[in-house]
């Protein structure tokens, strides 16, 4: 279970699941806004990220491990269900959680993520990157990918993103990469999601392009698709006002529990 998390505000629970290799502070604009506007915002550091230790690992942290950690956190906080929001790896964790525990999810937000299983080439690339991070640490990787995480024209968000990446434990990052290499295909799972969903993507995201978001939107029985202009892989930080407007409209569309 995550040992560090933010838990702010009152109202329906909004669980924010960060991506790789970040921590809960990638959601800071959303934590600040939605905890003030009628929601209980829960934003954990995942296993091995931020202030939550990795703990014992056999070398791979599976998406199911992260998902069960989150359910344990909901149990510990006495939260029966939540609007589950995940970005990138966090979106894949969200898909795994809704596959295993659909009763815990009353709304699903998938941002800049994709549902397909890894290809053979992708598995090799993730495992090779895991080896590299263990050898070299995070800084070289962070330097290389920063312009894909945050579009070059969104310089305001770049320092925070770079700091998060450099601060991540390379052992934890490598374990997550090896786990993601073994992920299942979530496309059938999406066709069975019985709650409303929101799919969000940055227009200039090259990791998870708009076509991936359109595929998820088509698979989900009840979903809305929002493309954030002038954003790449982290639209919630690059264009927080636009991202928050989409999330706010989605949250307002859900029937609040009595």
- CATH architecture classification name: 3-Layer(aba) Sandwich
Low-pLDDT stretches: none
- Write out the strand line-up for the largest beta sheet, numbering strands in chain order: 1-3-2-4-5-6-7
Any idea how many domains? 1
CATH topology: Rossmann fold
Distance between the termini: 28 Å
- The SSE order reads EEHEHEHEHHHHHEHEHH
Main beta-sheet annotation? 7 strands, mixed
Class based on secondary structure composition and strand pairing: alpha/beta
- Could you give the count of β-strands? 7
- Tell me, rounded to a whole number, the average pLDDT: 96
Assembly type: single chain
- Measured as a percent range, the helix fraction is 40-55%
Separate helix tally: 11
According to CATH, the homologous superfamily is Alpha/Beta hydrolase fold, catalytic domain
- What is the rounded Rg? 17 Å
Principal-axes geometry comes out as globular
State which percent range the strand residues make up: 15-25%
Text of the CATH class: Alpha Beta
Domain AB hydrolase-1: 14-245
GO molecular function: hydrolase activity
Keywords: Hydrolase
InterPro entries: AB_hydrolase_1, AB_hydrolase_fold, AB_hydrolase_sf, Epox_hydrolase-like
Description:
- Residues 14-245 form the AB hydrolase-1 domain.
- It is a single chain.
- The protein has one domain (5-253): 3-Layer(aba) Sandwich (Rossmann fold), CATH 3.40.50.1820.
- The chain contains 11 helices and 7 strands.
- It is an alpha/beta fold and 258 residues long.
- A 7-stranded mixed sheet has the order 1-3-2-4-5-6-7, with helices on both faces.
- Strand 2, helix 1 and strand 3 form a beta-alpha-beta unit.
- It starts with a strand and ends in a 5-residue tail after the last helix.
- The model has no long low-confidence stretch (mean pLDDT 96).
């Amino acid at each position: 279970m995550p040992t560090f998390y933010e838990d702010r505000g009152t109202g329906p629970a909004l669980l924010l699941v960060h991506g790789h290799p970040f921590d809960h502070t990638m959601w800071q604009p959303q934590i600040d806004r939605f905890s003030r506007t009628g929601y209980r915002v829960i934003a954990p550091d995942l296993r091995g990220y931020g202030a939550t230790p990795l703990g014992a690992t056999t070398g791979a942290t599976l998406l199911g491990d992260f998902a069960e950690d989150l359910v344990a956190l909901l149990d510990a906080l006495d939260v029966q269900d939540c609007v589950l929001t995940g970005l990138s790896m966090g979106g894949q964790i969200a898909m795994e959680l809704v596959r295993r525990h659909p009763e815990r999810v009353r709304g699903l937000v998938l941002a800049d993520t994709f549902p397909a299983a890894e290809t053979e080439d992708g598995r090799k690339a993730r495992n090779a990157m895991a080896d590299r991070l263990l050898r070299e640490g995070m800084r070289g990787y962070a330097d290389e990918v920063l312009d894909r995480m945050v579009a070059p024209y969104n310089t305001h968000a770049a320092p925070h993103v770079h700091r998060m990446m450099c601060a991540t434990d390379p052992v934890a990052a490598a374990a997550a990469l090896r786990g993601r290499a073994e992920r299942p295909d979530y496309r059938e799972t999406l066709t069975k999601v019985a709650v409303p969903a929101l799919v969000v993507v940055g227009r200039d995201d090259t990791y998870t392009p708009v076509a991936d978001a359109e595929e998820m939107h088509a698979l989900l029985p009840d979903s809305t698709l929002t493309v954030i202009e002038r954003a790449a892989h982290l639209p919630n930080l690059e264009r927080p006002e636009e991202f928050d407007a989409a999330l706010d409209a989605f949250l307002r569309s859900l029937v609040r529990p009595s």
